[in-house]
Amino acid sequence: MEFAKGHGTENDFVVLPDPAAELELTRSAVSVLCDRRQGLGADGILRVARAGVLRDAGVLDRMPSGVEPEDWFMDYRNGDGTIAEMCGNGVRVFAHYLRVHDLEQRDQFVVGSRAGARAVTVHSFDDTDADVTVAMGDVTLMGSSSTTIAGGSYDGVGIDVGNPHLACVDGALTRASLGALDFSAPPTLDAEFFPHGANVEILTRLDDGAVEMRVFERGVGETRSCGTGTVAAAAAALSYEGLETGEVSVGVLGGRVRVAIDHVGATLRGPSVLLARGEIDDRWLKARS
Ligand SMILES: N[C@@H](CCC[C@H](N)C(=O)O)C(=O)O
């Protein structure tokens, strides 16, 4: 089986082209592929297939909003094998992969996700690097909640970016004190507020249009970036200042992205890197599926 390896601000993925949707992406197959010692190592998997093919194969039970059968669909799995609705960094890498492999010839096209259609613009690309903007859709603030992480309690805002987030602005945090937090243990969450779990972002307040953020991802653990998380962080940072719209530069451990939020929705602009391609031994994966 062919694969490629890529990342968006160091949120890394194994990309699996599967045009006929033949792969059995069991939880154990995904988690062993993503394991950094037993497998290739990644935060998640991006299966590449057309939406209609995935529906006909029973991977999708319905066509998500705005997604057409002929659209390419990012079938995203977290490193622990669970399915998530959306992955903002993943969409950039996915779009880059489609352009490099000539599966898509346009610079503007739609990528399907379980959260719905996501319009992408590939501003520039070569075999290894790309600059991509993703229209991230609606950003819905769901109210206040809180978490305990790194030995502290944080109040934040529940935010739906297609997937669930708790984004917590701490006005006292600096880049250095944020960097010193220990994110090794999972955060606590209010299970009634977040019945399906959530990704948790802790961030500094807006300063000169920029914030710094760290994230603990549902189904993965701490990652060096989370695209949907940067959109949630931008929305929380604006809301903390009493704003609903604006542009925010979000710094993560793996780099920096730009988020713009207006009354129509959010966009996320950032890099994609494709660094390797190769072949997975089918016998190895089958024995672990
Ligand atoms: N890293 C992703 C988000 C992936 C899904 C997330 N862990 C979840 O379970 O919702 C991103 O870049 O958005």
UniProtKB/TrEMBL annotation:
Q: Location of site Could be important to modulate the pK values of the two catalytic cysteine residues?
A: 165, 217
Coarse class of the primary localization is cytoplasm
**EC numbers for this chain:** 5.1.1.7
Q: What HAMAP family does this protein's entry cite?
A: DAP_epimerase
Active-site residues, Swiss-Prot/TrEMBL: 87, 87 (proton donor), 226 (proton acceptor)
- Biological role stated in the UniProt entry: Catalyzes the stereoinversion of LL-2,6-diaminopimelate (L,L-DAP) to meso-diaminopimelate (meso-DAP), a precursor of L-lysine and an essential component of the bacterial peptidoglycan.
PANTHER family in the cross-refs:
DIAMINOPIMELATE EPIMERASE, DIAMINOPIMELATE EPIMERASE, CHLOROPLASTIC
Q: Which residues bind substrate?
A: 11, 78, 88-89, 163, 199, 217-218, 227-228
Q: What is this protein called?
A: Diaminopimelate epimerase
Any Pfam family hit: DAP_epimerase
- Stated family: Belongs to the diaminopimelate epimerase family.
Q: In which pathway does it act?
A: Amino-acid biosynthesis; L-lysine biosynthesis via DAP pathway; DL-2,6-diaminopimelate from LL-2,6-diaminopimelate: step 1/1
